[in-house]
Each structure stands twice: as structure tokens, then as C-alpha cells.
Design goal:
Layout (H helix, E strand, L loop, with lengths): L1 H13 L3 H10 L1 H70 L3 E5 L6 E3 L6 E2 L4 E6 L3 E2 L4 E3 L4 E12 L6 E7 L2 E8 L5 E12 L4 E6 L5 E3 L6 E9 L1
Antiparallel strand pairs: 1-4, 1-13, 2-12, 3-11, 5-6, 6-11, 7-10, 7-13, 8-9, 8-11
InterPro entries: C1q_dom (IPR001073), Cerebellin_Synaptic_Org (IPR050822), Tumour_necrosis_fac-like_dom (IPR008983)
Subcellular location: Secreted
Protein name: Complement C1q-like protein 4
Length: about 240
């Protein structure tokens, strides 16, 4: 900008002769210098205005970036809160589901059969499932698996025709522990036995019933041999 003003001034001074220059200086020197001073002042003001405008633009850009950052932060917080709330809701639903546990099953769906006598204790698979809330009982294996830590109540029954040789009974088993046995033996007629137990189970503990060796279990549409259980309360 300074070069442009100096060059303009040089052109003005160089376009007149020495005499003319002297005459001009004598005629209107004040007008030229006043015009130059006014031009210089205008250029200085313009430069200052441009600098101020640039600063304002930079400040506006900074404010926009700051606002954008705040909005992104707020959106992130809202998304995190929504995800956390969803997780809590899902957790509560899952807790409610696993706290609803109950099942009842018998040996056969239809027909009749007599199991035993067998040479060793044998896990019974109760195929006819009337109730399985929470799906903790597996009708393919005969095993109940605790979905939540808590106190559970179990009941198992046995029935068979007495022959004066073999009894009818079996064990309630927790994992590999034989807990309680239900047993009955008669020389004739139909015999039944049942027992119940409350067990403290951890998540993943298994409970099932084993027919005792050399014992009988008769099954038909009357469903004499059953296995039931339900969650009393979680712990």
C-alpha cells in the first residue's frame, strides 16, 4: 500500500516541469499535501477496519467451533445417558425374568413303561413338561440349571408295582452331591414315595434325580414319577 502511494506521488511530481512544479507548489501545495494526508488516513483507517473485520471473523469462527464442540459433547452425553438407561431397563427386565423360575415334569408323555432294575444309579429324564417358566429345566438331559443365586424348593416322587424284591426310589442330586433319598418297597400292589428339599444354589448349579440301582419306576398316563422345583427367592 505504501509503495502504491509513493508511486502515485512520483507520477504526479514527475508529470510537470520544474517551473510548472514551482508554480504548482506556489499555487496549490496545500491541496496536494492535504489530499495525500487524507488518502493516507483513509488507507490507515481501511487497514484498521480490515484488521478489525478479520479479528471479528476469527472470533465468530472460534465461537462457532466452540458451540459446535458443546453441541457434540451434549449429543454424546445424551447418547451415553440413553444407552445407560437402556442397559438399566434391560438389566431390570432380565432380573425380573430370571426371578420367575418354576417347572414340573414327569417321565413319559404317553404310553407306559417300567424303568429298572438297573445295575447303577441312573439320571432320570423327565420328558413330559407341563411347566417350565424361565426354561431352567432341560427335558433332553433331565437337569435343572439355576439361572440366579437363591433358595430353591424341589420335590420328586417315585411309583412302581411292588414285587417283594425291588423297591422304588431315588436321589436328589446337587452337582455331584447326593442330597436326599425318597424310597419305598412293598411285596405287592402299587407303591409310591415322595420327598421335598430346599437348596441354596449359585448361578450354574445343577439339580437332577437319579433312580437308585436295582429299583423300579413305573410311568404311564397317570404320571406317578415327577420332578418339580421353583425359586423361593433370590439371594
Amino acid at each position: 500500500m505504501k509503495i502504491f502511494v509513493s508511486f502515485t506521488l512520483w507520477l504526479l511530481l514527475g508529470s510537470v516541469s520544474a517551473n510548472e512544479s514551482t508554480d504548482c507548489q506556489q499555487t496549490f501545495p496545500q491541496d496536494i499535501y492535504a489530499a495525500l494526508r487524507e488518502m493516507t488516513a483513509s488507507l490507515v483507517q481501511l487497514k484498521a477496519d480490515m484488521r478489525l473485520q478479520t479479528q471479528e471473523q476469527v472470533q465468530q469462527k472460534t465461537e462457532v467451533e466452540k458451540l459446535k464442540t458443546e453441541l457434540e459433547k451434549l449429543n454424546k452425553q445424551q447418547l451415553e445417558q440413553a444407552a445407560q438407561q437402556k442397559t438399566e431397563v434391560d438389566k431390570q427386565k432380565q432380573q425380573q425374568i430370571v426371578q420367575q423360575v418354576a417347572f414340573t415334569a414327569s417321565l413319559v408323555v404317553a404310553g407306559e413303561t417300567t424303568l429298572g432294575p438297573l445295575a447303577s444309579d441312573t439320571t432320570l429324564i423327565y420328558k413330559h413338561v407341563t411347566t417350565n417358566i424361565g426354561n431352567a429345566y432341560n427335558s433332553n438331559t433331565g437337569v435343572f440349571t439355576a439361572p440366579v443365586r437363591g433358595a430353591y424348593y424341589f420335590e420328586w416322587t417315585f411309583g412302581a408295582f411292588g414285587d417283594n424284591i425291588h423297591g422304588s426310589g431315588g436321589w436328589l442330586v446337587k452337582n455331584s452331591e447326593y442330597v436326599f433319598m425318597a424310597f419305598e418297597q412293598q411285596k405287592d400292589n402299587f407303591m409310591t414315595t415322595s420327598k421335598g428339599a430346599t437348596l441354596l444354589l449359585a448361578v450354574g448349579d445343577v439339580v437332577f434325580v437319579r433312580l437308585m440301582a436295582n429299583n423300579l419306576a413305573y410311568a404311564d398316563g397317570s404320571h406317578h414319577n415327577t420332578f418339580s422345583g421353583f425359586l423361593l427367592f433370590p439371594i
